[in-house]
Specification:
- The chain is an alpha/beta fold and 264 residues long.
- The chain has one domain: Rossmann fold.
- Helix content is 35%, strand content 16%.
- The chain contains eight helices and ten strands.
- The strands form two sheets. Strands 1-10-9-6-2-3-5 form a seven-stranded parallel beta sheet. Strands 4-8-7 form a three-stranded antiparallel beta sheet.
- Helix 2 links the parallel strand 2 and strand 3.
- Helix 1 crosses helix 2.
- The two termini are 27 Å apart.
- The model has no long low-confidence stretch (mean pLDDT 95).
């Protein structure tokens, strides 16, 4: 893991946006894995601004989202398809047919999961996968006890995740308790991963992910197995780490090395 600790949530979003811009600059036809929720919003706003200022283009890119609620169609205001359209896709130069999200309204959701895996393979695999982090350590909708080699499948959400997401639904609205999500094995297949976590409510999960054992109890701990996983944290999210000064030291050394290499 490459651990980056920054002063504020805005700095985290800026760092993440730079990684995506650099990826698309190096490989315009990149396959990007995307996430929903509150954490990526600031990053998406920065990508929209960069696209509108012609600093980056999504015209040749393809995207695959991590997950979708089971039982919501794409027009539902709380579906993740709707979220992505409103917060990113409608504002950048990506082709609609190049944006994929699990089909929450599929008549046969099991078959839809298998198709999604095949779509990712057919696209050549994911080059850069964006992740957020749940308070219980989930990534995508891979809740604690998820298999660390799991593939795209139907998952039951924990009571804690349902409660965390209830704020997005109006009183009396149907709130799904099931989802379709990329599996942990699917996520780990990405060539590069960047996880963003901000705020003190994520601090316990961050500690378990980075310093805890590799365990299904914290699905995000599986990122310890990935060779190119970058974890970008603000001070609050990093506040429970035991070795925080060591991570800062490593990052300073990394930046100094990069600077020397650029000067050669």
């Amino acid at each position: 893991m490459h651990i980056v600790i920054l002063p504020t949530a805005n700095c985290v979003a800026e760092y993440g946006a730079t990684l995506f811009i650099d990826q698309l600059s190096a490989k315009p036809d990149s396959v990007l894995g995307l996430a929903t929720g509150s954490t990526p919003l600031a990053l998406y706003h920065l990508l929209i601004a960069a696209n509108q200022q012609q600093q980056v283009s999504f015209a040749c890119a393809k995207t695959f989202n991590l997950d979708e609620y089971l039982g919501l169609n794409s027009e539902h205001p709380q579906s993740y398809r709707y979220f992505m359209q409103q917060h990113l896709f409608n504002h950048i130069d990506i082709l609609p047919e190049n944006t994929a999200i699990p089909d929450g309204a599929a008549a046969d959701p099991v078959a839809a999961c298998a198709r999604y895996e095949q779509q990712i393979i057919a696209a050549g695999g994911i080059d850069l996968q964006l992740l957020g982090l749940g308070r219980n350590g989930h990534i995508g909708f891979n809740e604690p006890s998820s298999g660390l080699r799991s593939r795209t499948r139907i998952k039951t959400l924990t009571a804690a995740t349902i409660a965390d997401n209830a704020r997005f639904f109006q009183t009396g609205d149907y709130q799904p308790h099931l989802s379709i999500t990329m599996g942990i094995g699917t996520i780990l297949d990405a060539r590069k991963i960047v996880l963003l976590a901000t705020g003190v409510t994520k601090a316990s999960a961050v500690k378990a992910m980075i310093e805890g054992p590799l365990a299904a109890a914290c699905p995000a701990s599986a990122l310890q197995l990935h060779q190119q996983a970058t974890i970008v944290l603000d001070e609050a999210a990093a506040s429970e780490l035991a070795d925080i000064e060591f991570y800062r030291h490593i990052e300073r050394e990394n930046q100094a090395l990069l600077k020397r290499l650029k000067q050669q």
